[in-house]
């Protein structure tokens, strides 16, 4: 394991293991059990050719990691990114195990990734890459074994291609092999906005605990994709001020609150948020440090470090992204009384509605949007309440408490099942 990934951010797997050890210490887990729980069960690396539009063939590398499947089939997204590493995918798979456990849905954890910048490829090249990658990892994925979903730079169309590829091999339609599909082929109501809905819900619960009135909140969001942009939309629709947002191109700031619907159409036209008229220009990292009450990192991991943590002005951090806070930054935030709602709780609504989608696909019976929203609200409220209570009793941060709730459940399942043979 290297300590740093090429882009200079902390190694995500080292981060995930450090967070695990902290919770495992508090749970007094013995070393043998820790050895099982911290180690990914399966790590598949695939190298495969893709025919490019110019007739040439290019090699790509991808991964699929299953961290732990003691509580149910492996579940986790697939990301396409030029900086994907095996350590990153291992970390994300481990976080998925804890995430499914903290909201108590019967899945284990997995993650996949391909080293590629899809923006450099045509749509047909991305489709061929997706279908070939899906075929390469078909030794692992399946509706009862390992169920992918969208993540960074993948979306419902990517899932449709994976579902179709898997179904072509089977000879019949297998919608339950992926979640986050379009509605027309077995997707679920509410999946697209689920992650953002859950992030906004936990933000409100945290604000309520800190007695911060919602109407006074100023929110900054890093990342303007599925998680970040929809969170901005939901907040704006509720009259909560979003003062800053950023994407890879940089950020924009307006202390009076950004006009999110206008910004969405600007981004739609221009591909980036930078340059949105009437706003102050920010760099990508400035967005984390602007005057605000709530910060929602919704881009990528390792962006909050001990270097920039002292400059973060928010009192609440809602981790819509996976792994945005390095462990040493976590400590600084805890000392300063900044409430960090950890990723495995803050963005767990995505996998929760994915679970609802999977159940609907298996039953061939689809629920109304209101059913989804009601069930999701109950899951998020119960999970937040359990975690906040344990954090209070233990005198620890919400991340350690969330990991304790989750790891205890996975440890119990592991012990009950026993060691084979
Ligand atoms: P996405 O591809 O839709 O959007 C990502 C956004 O982040 C884009 O606006 C991109 O420009 C921006 N971005 C990427 N790197 C950046 C950087 N270094 N600095 C600033 N901005 C950057 O992805 P998404 O689905 O919204 O996922 C975002 C995060 O949320 C990821 O960590 C993902 O694992 C997590 N997450 C997503 C879901 C989901 O349902 N989509 C569920 C759980 C967790």
Helix content: 40-55%
| CATH superfamily descriptor of the largest domain | NAD(P)-binding Rossmann-like Domain
Structural class: alpha/beta
Strand content: 15-25%
The tally of strands reads 12
Mean pLDDT figure: 96
Bound molecules: nicotinamide-adenine-dinucleotide
Shape: globular
What is the domain total for the residues? Answer: 2
DSSP helical segment count:
13
**CATH level-3 fold name of the largest domain:** Rossmann fold
Give the biggest sheet: 7 strands, mixed
Under CATH at level 1, the class of the largest domain stands as Alpha Beta
Radius of gyration: 20 Å
> Can you write the helix and strand succession as a string?
HHEEEHEHEHHEHEEHEEEHEHHHH
**Can you tell me the CATH architecture of the largest domain?**
3-Layer(aba) Sandwich
List low-confidence stretches.
1-6
Sheet with most strands: strand arrangement: 9-8-7-6-10-11-12
CA-to-CA gap between the ends? 30 Å
